[in-house]
Design brief:
- The chain folds into three domains: 6-142, Trna Endonuclease, Chain: A, domain 1 (3-Layer(aba) Sandwich); 155-236, no CATH class; 238-351, no CATH class.
- It is built from 15 helices and nine strands.
- It has helices spanning 14-24, 80-84, 101-108, 121-130, 135-141, 143-152, 191-207, 222-234, 239-248, 252-265, 271-279, 282-291, 299-308, 315-327, 331-348, and strands at 28-35, 41-47, 56-63, 90-95, 116-119, 157-159, 165-167, 179-181, 185-188.
- It has a five-stranded mixed β-sheet. The chain has a four-stranded mixed β-sheet with strand order 7-6-9-8.
- The radius of gyration is 23 Å and the shape is globular.
């Protein structure tokens, strides 16, 4: 469920919200906001390589249809190529509702020379709620949503050294002498005890099917992750539940950790679901994680390593998807399956 209500932003302020959002991400505003011929507002911004990995000037088209909920269509974005000529290197949509499939097809059609990038509502929300630099923008333009988010996290917490927060009501504390209470939080001094508390909480949530505990987390303290794996090997997860979580996860970071978890625990029942997620959207999830510019193992590398650990029963599935990726000419995905098979054969031997 969405935590940001785009209806809070007045249509006349949406382009200013877009400008401040992009500036907080490191973009430089060159022009705008100016009213264009299509009665929308365009910005001209330069980015330092966050999206394209090279300095790029973007024409930003701001469309706020939060009130109607309608998708941004082809008629809303006339003559994109003409609007770019002599002004910008690429087109950027900044939308409070998703682009229509027709508009996406126009931008992505074969032979099109238009470089494009879309900030849709899900992408905007993900960054607003995860980036520290965007907190002032969130509080200024979404005060009600910001208060709601704060209320949800205002309960008593335990803070780990990695900045990961846990609800203290889910944990039984017996050693009060190592805890400091400031009225809103408890902080653990002993890093080993802290890791144990965190691992017990995470493992408990995972066993209950509460995989949302992994949402928005790039990686855990290695001590925590090893303890979680030890606890889950002692009392395993329901295999079908883990496969279902991998099948239905929408958050790229959560999916990355779920796949890693399946590999570490050798849950071969998840092989087909992992392969499907790689074949149908693996590159997008890989790009979404890269976009956050976090220091962590890339998404497709995690998936490859996990597939290689799933045991002998997974080999026929891996072989089938390797062939399917080759048939579809999905060469990035094919390389993942091929590399996973080679590692798999090295460990378990070829059938």
């Amino acid at each position: 469920m969405s935590t940001i209500d785009f209806g809070e932003v007045d249509p006349e302020r949406f382009e200013y919200f877009a400008r401040e959002f992009l500036e907080a991400l490191g973009f430089e505003t060159l022009e705008g906001p100016d009213r264009g011929s299509e009665e929308g507002r365009d910005l001209l911004v330069r980015e330092p390589g966050a999206i394209t990995r090279e300095p790029t000037v973007w024409l930003v088209s701001c469309k706020h249809k939060g009130a109607s909920g309608k998708a941004v269509g082809v008629a809303d974005e006339p003559d994109i190529a003409g609007r770019l000529t002599g002004r910008a290197d690429g087109f950027m949509g900044f939308y409070s509702t998703p682009p229509s499939s027709a508009l996406t097809r126009v931008l992505a059609r074969p032979g099109s020379r238009i470089r494009y990038y879309i900030f849709d509502p899900a992408r905007i929300e993900n960054l607003l709620t995860s980036r520290e630099s965007l907190r002032p923008v969130l509080s200024q333009y979404f005060p009600r949503s910001c208060r709601s988010i704060a209320l949800q996290s205002a309960r008593l917490k335990v803070h780990t050294e990695a900045g990961f927060s846990l609800y203290a009501k889910d944990i039984a504390f017996e050693v009060d002498s190592v805890l400091h209470h400031d009225g809103t939080s408890l902080r653990v001094d002993d890093p080993e005890l802290e890791a144990t508390i965190t691992a017990c909480h995470v493992a408990k949530r995972l066993r209950a099917g509460r995989f949302d505990v992994l949402r928005g987390i790039a990686s855990f303290n290695p001590l925590v992750w090893k303890a979680v794996l030890m606890l889950l090997r002692f009392e395993p997860l329901p295999r079908r539940t883990l496969a279902s979580a991998i099948r239905n996860a929408t958050d790229s970071l959560e999916l990355r950790l779920l796949i890693s978890l399946a590999g570490e625990l050798g849950v071969s029942d998840t092989c087909q679901d992992i392969c499907l997620r790689i074949l149908n959207g693996g590159r997008q999830h890989h790009g979404a994680v890269e976009e956050l510019r976090l220091v962590c193992t890339p998404f497709l590398d995690v998936a490859r390593d996990a597939l290689a650990r799933l045991g002998p029963r997974s080999r026929p599935v891996l072989k089938r998807y390797e062939g399917e990726a080759r048939r579809l000419r999905r060469w990035t995905e094919h390389r993942v399956f091929e590399a996973a098979l080679k590692r798999h054969d090295h460990v378990y031997g070829a059938a």
